[in-house]
Design brief:
Length: 145
């Protein structure tokens, strides 16, 4: 099955239209991408047996994948991705490596859901700290899209 990916120009056009509140919250969370990466790796290993059992993904590979995917998503939300950058390069590379490692698709998808949860929790925490709950509500559609 081939993933349907929107044309790159459509992604960049959408980024420019992101509400300012989404950009502000996401920039603050982007500044903590290393902490979020560490948290995500720990959650994946704890909640997803395929990542900690025999023949599991090496920790360094998981760390790199989590970092690169979180970074791309947050760059996408903030509109800071360079125009020539493929916004889907990190998930494609991760998917290819996991397939080569024989990782079950269900485990890979579960790891992505955990990543989105970590991003959402970061946005919620930032919104509470900044008093930006209205911005968080506005961000919800962008994040889950």
């Amino acid at each position: 099955m081939t993933a349907v990916v929107p044309p790159e120009h459509a992604v960049h056009r959408r980024l420019r239209a992101a509400p300012q509140s989404v950009v502000v919250l996401s920039l603050a969370v982007l500044a903590d991408v290393e902490l979020l990466t560490h948290r995500l790796v720990e959650v994946i290993v704890a909640e997803n047996p395929s990542y900690s059992g025999p023949g599991h993904t090496p920790r360094e590979d998981l760390q790199r994948s989590c970092h690169d995917n979180l970074l791309r998503i947050l760059q996408w939300l903030t509109g800071t991705t360079d125009p020539g950058t493929d916004p889907f390069d990190a998930p494609r590379a991760t998917g290819q490596r996991r397939a080569e490692q024989g990782m079950p698709l269900e485990s890979v998808l579960h790891a992505y859901r955990l990543g989105y949860r970590i991003i959402w929790e970061g946005l919620v925490s930032q919104a509470r700290a900044d008093g930006g709950v209205d911005g968080l509500v506005e961000a919800a559609s962008e994040v889950w899209a």
